[in-house]
Hints:
Bound molecules: D-xylitol-5-phosphate, zinc ion
Structural class: alpha/beta
Oligomer: single chain
Shape: globular
Amino acid sequence: MKKIKISPSILSADFSQLSSEIKKLEEAGADMIHVDVMDGHFVPNLTIGPPVIESLRSHTKLPFDVHLMISPVHKYIKNFSDAGADIITIHPEATENLFESIKHIKDLGKKAGVSLNPDTKISIVEKYLNEIDLILIMSVYPGFGGQKFIPEVIKKIQKLNEIKEKNNLNFEIEVDGGINFTNSRHVIEAGANILVSGTTIFKENSGDIKKNIETLRSI
Ligand code: DX5
Ligand code: ZN
């Protein structure tokens, strides 16, 4: 039975209380913290950068699952690594040389993730799957929390999982965007083992984070 990991997105957290919010997530049983970094250029929204990650680093032992929605991304990878990111996930469209960027992340001793937008084909990463630790399948167009899950991505998760099993590869499949108590089971059955969630975890059941994490994991 595969272990399902939950990576709450702090984009939906109270940004004025980030350290206590991540402590609450840790106590509630989160497996990692999903940090959405946005530059207002690659996506039409601006959030946080390395200084915030650095200041949060000592407040939790959980891995920082850093999702870089920034372009160009290559020259900033080391900043996020130095700030305390554990998983650094980039979008292929944001680098001139995807292999070099993946290699750079791994040379820094971090896990390398590649994120595929709903309209980005698996073929863009297929030849690098051996080098990649994690594929982040976007089930919304990146930029904002609280969007509606795009059901067409289920087929993409299934296809990626088939490639993984056929070639006996080890990368993890993480799904991000609009995950809720209904679609999470379909996402897991399709082959995902890490669920990102912001709105469902922070807002459902009057914000009972522990209950929401347990519900997502148990489905
Ligand atoms: C969107 C981000 C997602 C988002 C998830 O660009 O990458 O991580 O914060 O939030 P929900 O779960 O509310 O869709
Ligand atoms: Zn994200």
